[in-house]
Amino acid sequence: MNIRIHNLGKQYGAFPALDGVSLDVRSGELLALLGPSGSGKTTLLRAIAGLEHPERGQILFDGEDATGLSVQARRAGFVFQHYALFKHLDVRGNIAFGLEVRRGAERWSKARINAKVDELLALVQLDGLGARYPAQLSGGQRQRVALARALAIEPRVLLLDEPFGALDAQVRRDLRRWLRELHDRTGLTTVFVTHDQEEALELADRVAILNRGRIEQVGTPGEVYDQPASPFVYGFVGEANRLPARAQGQVLEVAGAQWPRAASVPEGQALEVFVRPEDLVVEAEGDWQATVGLVQRSGPRQRLRARLAGATSDLEVELPAGAPAYAAGQSIRLGARRYGVFPAAAG
Ligand code: ADP
Ligand code: MG
């Protein structure tokens, strides 16, 4: 099922939690909603689920207006970070819950529910643990039960709100891979909320970046990393150095260096050039003279802080594996092999 979100708005008092959000989720894709805490991710996910009612905008499920539909009618499966399992039910009972509460013509037979639970236990790789209670499971196992419970109702879309947020790093990484494989097998349209850029880039087919209730960019992990659409995306997905710049005629002047100006770069206003640490290169013919400050080694990687002549702050430089070692105080020349140009932030 595809989801079309059009101009969604939700206020809490005077504060816009969602400020005109439009987004298409393609059928069968795994889309990550990525943004800092408070950017509106949970509000957006809850609006898709039908748990939150936006004041304006529309949500279409496969072209049909779902804005007024109940949670049940939307048939969305969800897993939240703190959406705890029922403590008094064993794993089988938890997974079957959404099926057991059905009444009338909707109700499945006991045998059919049992067969479905068996199938889901196998899918989330918890065969043999059906009789355990939540307290007897690890954090990662509990989230897999929560996922099986969400899948039991055969949802049209799966909504996951930081489902691995409370787990430690290694378990998170394992579950991330596992979820990706599960998604590839089920092909279920999935929206995955996270504030962790690494998680989003590794897991998702596409990433939507949310900031202050607005979508800043939607693209594949490669696109949002390689061609950030805004200063916010540059800083939030990966890291960026910022250099003062100004364009005049055919020239873009960047911290004293003169580059050709692209037609899209506005003239006569303060600009900022954004360069990722790994896109700064040490080379004899580099544009800028710089002095090496702190040198850091972490595994195969070498990182430098370097200060341009006349500048008051340092640049971060990430050197490729196998680069020569540098020492503090050394004089080098730096160039940029990829960059973005944006109007300078006011103030
Ligand atoms: P995220 O999930 O990205 O951390 P949320 O969607 O939870 O962000 O929240 C977005 C903004 O809306 C935040 O500033 C939050 O404080 C505010 N907010 C969320 N829920 C409520 C609520 N029930 N009442 C008042 N403000 C809320
Ligand atoms: Mg949240």
TrEMBL record:
<dbReference type="GO" id="GO:0016887">
    <property type="term" value="F:ATP hydrolysis activity"/>
</dbReference>
<dbReference type="GO" id="GO:0015697">
    <property type="term" value="P:quaternary ammonium group transport"/>
</dbReference>
<dbReference type="InterPro" id="IPR003439">
    <property type="entry name" value="ABC_transporter-like_ATP-bd"/>
</dbReference>
<dbReference type="GO" id="GO:0043190">
    <property type="term" value="C:ATP-binding cassette (ABC) transporter complex"/>
</dbReference>
<dbReference type="InterPro" id="IPR050093">
    <property type="entry name" value="ABC_SmlMolc_Importer"/>
</dbReference>
<dbReference type="InterPro" id="IPR005666">
    <property type="entry name" value="Sulph_transpt1"/>
</dbReference>
<keyword id="KW-1278">Translocase</keyword>
<dbReference type="InterPro" id="IPR003593">
    <property type="entry name" value="AAA+_ATPase"/>
</dbReference>
<dbReference type="InterPro" id="IPR027417">
    <property type="entry name" value="P-loop_NTPase"/>
</dbReference>
<dbReference type="InterPro" id="IPR013611">
    <property type="entry name" value="Transp-assoc_OB_typ2"/>
</dbReference>
<keyword id="KW-0764">Sulfate transport</keyword>
<feature type="domain" description="ABC transporter">
    <location>
        <begin position="3"/>
        <end position="237"/>
    </location>
</feature>
<dbReference type="InterPro" id="IPR008995">
    <property type="entry name" value="Mo/tungstate-bd_C_term_dom"/>
</dbReference>
<keyword id="KW-0813">Transport</keyword>
<dbReference type="Pfam" id="PF08402">
    <property type="entry name" value="TOBE_2"/>
</dbReference>
<keyword id="KW-0067">ATP-binding</keyword>
<protein>
    <submittedName>
        <fullName>Sulfate ABC transporter ATP-binding protein</fullName>
    </submittedName>
</protein>
<dbReference type="InterPro" id="IPR017871">
    <property type="entry name" value="ABC_transporter-like_CS"/>
</dbReference>
<dbReference type="Pfam" id="PF00005">
    <property type="entry name" value="ABC_tran"/>
</dbReference>
<dbReference type="GO" id="GO:0015419">
    <property type="term" value="F:ABC-type sulfate transporter activity"/>
</dbReference>
<keyword id="KW-0547">Nucleotide-binding</keyword>
<dbReference type="GO" id="GO:0005524">
    <property type="term" value="F:ATP binding"/>
</dbReference>
